[in-house]
Write a structure and sequence with these properties.
heterodimer; A: 257 residues; alpha/beta; Rossmann fold; 2 domains; 11 helices; 25% strand; globular; B: mainly alpha; two-stranded antiparallel ribbon; 4 strands
């Protein structure tokens, strides 16, 4: 692929393997020896309450901040010590909490920012990469609203449209692994439903999704497998449907009885 | 009011304002991207004046006398070396402090500013230095004027305004229409997100310092050719003036810095021409204080919004 690190993947290496990592900000440790795995073609969900460390885990995978202990492997290669931008160039795209679209740029320019991860010299030649037009069409096909708003500033979009833009921007980098942080946050139920349906379509096109959600119900219905995170530790894991019917989960996260 | 004095101050103001604008761009871009005032920027300007003189002497030594060729070569050489200074200042004085508190790089900036001043004072001498005029000639409007009834524009002044406009147009084009510029704007708006998208943000910060220094080099060369004399201390006053221009225009805004430069240049010139030329600096810095009190976001700046 791109960047200097050669990816010599063995077919049975998991796409992402997180082994006993600890990480945090300053004196606060948010993750305590956490392990999990994401395989190719899966949708894996990580559910947990506010403050459990879900976003910290996604940020640590991207080395911002880097893990203090443990290791992270991507296609069998250790990426724990790489810089954030190098990890992005390996094909890991991050749709962070709060979307973080570039409000002062147009929708089109935001999407073009996804190209930065593509080339070896991304700031100079990304736009000349072959297939960019097709990628853009694909994103517009998934999210037709973005085509209508292509020349509008991203700051003027609604929350749902910004979420679509953030996902579209990530897809422009042709990721193997898409990290999604709370895509449902602050969205109306029908828009949320539409975005979750699109996620299924994205996986069918060959991108693996690792999803972090507070909205356990939606996430577990969508996910092939799921992990439950409590206070920086994984407490439970299993197929999405199984967790959905588990009494513990129903009690703690689904408001069930 | 005398129309000729008015016209002359207009010309002087535009010339002065163009150089302020060129230097202000460096303050505003660095502020936009890492949120600090690079107080060593004035010294970068001062160094470019020395480099201009050195390259002028070198080229004369080689026996080059074609004015356009000399100007172009001096510009390119000065630009390159000054940009190198800008890049080094960031690497040495600011990057190691990237994750410390806000005060640390500011102190470091003042430190590097003193180091550069004294390095030049010791290596080049504290005396006033000069360069011979390269481009001589004036236009007078009207051409057949008598007494003091004309506005005078030197070739040198027109060179300043034209080069400043061209450099700013080029910079604006790079920022708005290239992938590099897009990466700069993205890093300015949200450094963490740009980094997550694969932008090497440390490299972009270096690029911004290089661009700022290059613009200061253009100013340094033009002013040196125009005034002919300089010393190791010129960066201080020019630096704060340009900083004032950046604040007037709205710090962080690129068109703001250019506009602020022109407005400050005009204000200073008219004040000098019609009120009192001894107090023109007092007037310029009074403007700075008034803007900081009543309109800290300047003409084109956006009031700072707390990021959530």
């Amino acid at each position: 692929m791109n960047e200097s690190l050669p990816i010599t993947a063995v077919a049975d290496d998991p796409l992402l393997a997180v082994k006993e990592i600890s990480a945090g900000y300053g004196a606060i440790e948010a993750l305590h020896g956490l392990s999990l795995q994401v395989n190719r073609g899966e949708i894996v969900a990580l559910i947990g309450a506010n403050g459990a460390g879900k976003s910290s885990l996604l940020m640590t995978i991207c080395a911002n901040p880097p893990a203090r202990r443990g290791e992270i492997r991507y296609l069998g290669q250790e990426i724990t010590r790489l810089a954030t931008h190098q990890i992005a160039r390996l094909g890991i795209a991050h749709v962070p909490e709060g979307r973080r679209v570039f409000a002062g740029m147009t929708v089109e320019e935001n999407l073009a920012m996804g190209l930065m991860a593509l080339a070896n010299q991304p700031v100079l030649s990304a736009a000349e990469q072959p297939g960019v037009v097709e990628d853009l069409e694909r994103v517009y096909h998934l999210f037709p609203r973005l085509r209508e708003r292509a020349r509008q500033r991203a700051g003027t979009l609604s929350g749902g449209e910004q979420q679509m833009l953030a996902i579209g921007r990530a897809l422009m980098s042709r990721p193997r692994l898409l990290l999604l942080d709370e895509p449902s946050l602050g969205l109306a139920p029908q828009i949320m439903g539409r975005i979750f349906a699109t996620l299924r379509a994205i996986v069918e096109e060959g991108t693996t999704i690792f999803l972090v959600e507070q909205n356990a119900n939606q996430a577990l219905q969508l996910a092939d497998r799921a992990y439950v995170l409590v206070n920086g530790c994984i407490t439970l894991s299993g197929p999405g449907q199984e967790l959905l019917t588990s009494p513990e989960i129903r009690k703690a996260y689904l408001g069930g009885h | 009011m005398d129309i000729y004095i008015f016209g002359q101050q207009l010309v002087n103001g535009l010339v002065l304002g163009s150089t302020y604008g060129l230097i202000a761009v460096g303050y505003t871009m660095v502020y936009g991207i890492i949120g600090m005032i690079n107080f060593a920027h004035g010294e970068i300007y001062m160094i470019s004046a020395y480099l201009t003189a050195i390259f002028l002497a070198l080229l004369a030594g080689f026996g080059l006398h074609s004015v356009p060729v000399v100007l172009l070569l001096v510009l390119l050489c000065t630009l390159f070396l000054t940009a190198l200074y800008g890049w080094s200042v960031e690497r040495i004085a600011y990057r190691p402090l990237r994750h410390s508190n806000r005060l640390a790089p500011l102190i470091s900036a003042i430190g590097i500013s003193l180091i550069l001043q004294n390095y030049i004072r010791i290596s080049q001498g504290a005396r006033n230095q000069g360069v011979p005029p390269v481009l001589e000639g004036v236009w007078r409007i009207p051409a057949q004027a008598v007494e003091q009834q004309f506005v005078q524009i030197t070739y040198q002044q027109s060179l300043i305004v034209i080069t400043a406009l061209a450099s700013m147009a080029l910079l604006t084009w790079v920022i708005h229409h290239t992938a590099l510029g897009r990466a700069c704007r993205a890093t300015q708006q949200d450094r963490v997100m740009a980094n997550l998208l694969g932008v090497d943000t440390d490299r972009i910060i270096s690029v911004v310092f290089v661009m700022g220094a290059a613009m200061a080099a253009v100013a340094g060369m033009l002013v040196t050719l125009n005034y002919g004399s300089f010393d190791f201390y010129i960066g201080f006053l020019m630096g704060i003036k340009a900083f004032t221009a950046a604040v007037l225009g709205g710090i962080g805004s690129l068109p703001g810095a250019m506009l602020g430069g022109v407005v400050l240049g005009l204000a200073e010139s008219f004040f000098a021409g019609f009120v009192n030329s001894d107090y023109k600096d007092v007037f310029a810095f009074s403007l700075l204080i008034l803007f900081l009190i009543f309109r800290p976001s300047g003409f084109l700046g956006v009031p700072e919004v707390e990021k959530v």
